[in-house]
Design a protein that fits this description.
- The chain is of the alpha/beta class and 249 residues long.
- The chain has ten helices and eleven strands.
- The strands form two sheets. It has a six-stranded parallel β-sheet with strand order 8-7-6-9-10-11, sandwiched between helices. The chain has a five-stranded parallel β-sheet with strand order 2-1-3-4-5.
- Helix 4 packs across helix 6.
- The longest helix has 16 residues.
């Protein structure tokens, strides 16, 4: 059996895989592949068409937007993923990014390394506390729910969530307020966490209108897919320039 592996995985997992298969790291001969394991490499329609022995495509993570799932379905090749595998690590990263933005940690480190500060607590590094802030979630899957638990438990935040599939009962069980749409999230939140998969419905979903609805001090943290707001980054940059407490991640 020949397995394409795009990136490093845990050494024990790799050793187990190599006990049962020949592992390759190129698509030079897709016709010889029996399985594909990817994380950040695109599996295109052309690759799937040429991989006539292919039995499965596995995503080493949750999002499957790197795989042409329609082509795989047409070819009868199942696509699998690990929807909860990285929940804890991504939630922790989202919390770290939020703290870094709120407290201007990257700017402070850069300034210290460059010797720009000769006094205590320069004005441009004045941050804000997370305690008591309203955190809005665009998308409310496994990762968003874990971030909400952290923000409520550690900082006493009020959490507001919206997704196309969230029900009032699910929001109540999760201990969050159910927003009626993304616009309510943007208007009411001090911090917005973007936690959506990349689909035709979510691509570019946060644009100029949504950013103009937000508070000037908004902290926007995207640990999902950049394309959910790529079309509006110029607008975000212009707003950041006018407000030192606004950040994009």
């Amino acid at each position: 059996m020949n397995v394409y592996l795009s990136e490093e995985i845990d050494p024990e997992a790799l050793a187990l895989l190599e006990e049962h298969a020949t592992v390759v790291d190129t698509f030079d001969h897709p016709e010889l592949l029996d399985a594909i394991i990817v994380r950040r490499v695109h599996v295109t329609r052309d690759i799937i068409a040429r991989a006539t022995r292919l039995k499965i495509i596995a995503m080493h993570g949750a999002g499957t937007d790197m795989i042409d799932c329609a082509a795989a379905k047409e070819a009868g090749v199942p696509v699998v993923n690990v929807p909860c595998g990285s929940t804890e690590s991504v939630a922790e990263m989202a919390l770290a990014l939020t703290l870094a933005a709120a407290r201007h940690i990257p700017e402070a480190r850069e300034g210290l390394e460059e010797g720009r500060y000769d006094h205590f607590s320069p004005h441009e590094l004045m941050g804000c506390e997370l305690y008591g802030k309203t955190v809005g979630f665009v998308g409310f899957g496994h990762i968003a729910r874990r971030i909400a638990q952290m923000m409520k438990g550690a900082f006493g935040c009020t959490c507001l969530a919206w997704s196309r599939h969230l029900t009032d009962e699910e929001a109540r069980r999760a201990g969050v307020l159910h927003a009626k749409d993304i616009h309510e999230i943007m208007r009411k939140s001090d911090i917005v966490q973007v936690c959506v998969p990349l689909t035709p419905q979510t691509k570019g979903m946060i644009g100029t209108r949504e950013l103009n609805e937000a508070k000037r001090s908004l902290i926007l943290v995207d640990t999902a897919r950049a394309a959910s707001w790529t079309s509006s980054r110029s607008s975000m940059r212009s707003r950041c320039a006018g407000s030192p407490q606004q950040h994009s991640m």
